[in-house]
Amino acid sequence: MATKKKSAKVKGAPAKERPAFDGNFKKLVIVESPAKARKITDYLGDDYIVEASVGHIRDLPQRAADIPAEVKKQAWSKEGVDIENDFAPLYVINPDKKGKVSELKALMKEADELILATDEDREGEAIAWHLVEVLEPKIPIKRMVFNEITKEAIQKAVHETRDLDYHLIDAQETRRVLDRLYGYRLSPVLWKKVMPRISAGRVQSVATRLIVERERERMAFISSAWWDLTAKCEGFDARLLSVDDKRLAATNDFDANGALKEKNAANILSLMKLTQNN
């Protein structure tokens, strides 16, 4: 079996082909992007084959067609999160990644070690975990991380591997579930009311709620008028605060309907009472 040959286009230099699979490699390294795979292949030597997963290979279902038949009738299947079963996520292989999964499984059959070299952040950690879940390797698994693509950094990273970090994996999964639960049904509303192809998640849904609540308060607001009196005296201004122990109304004496608050009415000087007294 031979892998599909790819070439890396380097500005100012001729394209260089990746070596074809000859059936003798020992370690399979999986990174996220094809560009990164091409860059680090030469740094690892002939004992390694570097392939790219091209991002996530599985996720929560994006379309109704992606939902497995056995759970399609479940009320939670559209969201892809079983809220009655400890918020268990439903993962499906992305339709456009089924060919990539088959390719990686075929390569793994000829390897005696699997090295997961996805990005070091929680998203990369989750991609590595999904690869393990889908590929189901029977060979040793190592987690390789690096912060720069140089020969020294790559060779050091491949000899200083670690285990998967399940704290990062859980963090990414929690974020993904929250995004789905709090944004999946809101996003279509935003497409209609704001603009197409924007999405709402755990952050945008809360912000949208705050905006909506504030707008409803604005729409329900009823204005009220009151007056105060300021005398321009020589050297100073004198503001009228009360008359006969009755103070003048202020902003916080009115309720949301524009009416004078009942608890404050007895102590407020009203125009009607002032007219009657005079």
Notes on the protein architecture:
There is one protein chain. With 278 residues, the protein is an alpha/beta fold. It folds into two domains: 7-178, Rossmann fold (3-Layer(aba) Sandwich), CATH 3.40.50.140; 230-277, no CATH class. It is built from nine helices and 14 strands. A four-stranded parallel beta sheet has the order 4-3-9-10, sandwiched between helices. Strands 1-2 form a two-stranded antiparallel ribbon. Helix 1 packs across helix 4 (151-159) and helix 3 packs across helix 5 (166-183). The longest helix is centred in the middle third of the chain and has 18 residues, at 166-183. Residues 1-19 have low confidence and may be disordered.
Give the helix/strand layout.
Elements (H helix, E strand, L loop, with lengths): L6 E2 L7 E2 L9 E5 L2 H11 L3 E5 L5 E2 L21 E2 L5 E2 L2 E2 L4 H11 L4 E4 L5 H14 L5 E3 L7 H9 L6 H18 L2 H8 L10 H17 L9 E4 L2 E4 L2 E2 L2 E2 L14 H4 L5 H7 L1
Task: Give a short summary of the structure.
The protein is of the alpha/beta class. It contains 9 helices and 14 strands. It has helices spanning 34-44, 98-108, 122-135, 151-159, 166-183, 186-193, 204-220, 262-265, 271-277; strands at residues 7-8, 16-17, 27-31, 48-52, 58-59, 81-82, 88-89, 92-93, 113-116, 141-143, 230-233, 236-239, 242-243, 246-247.
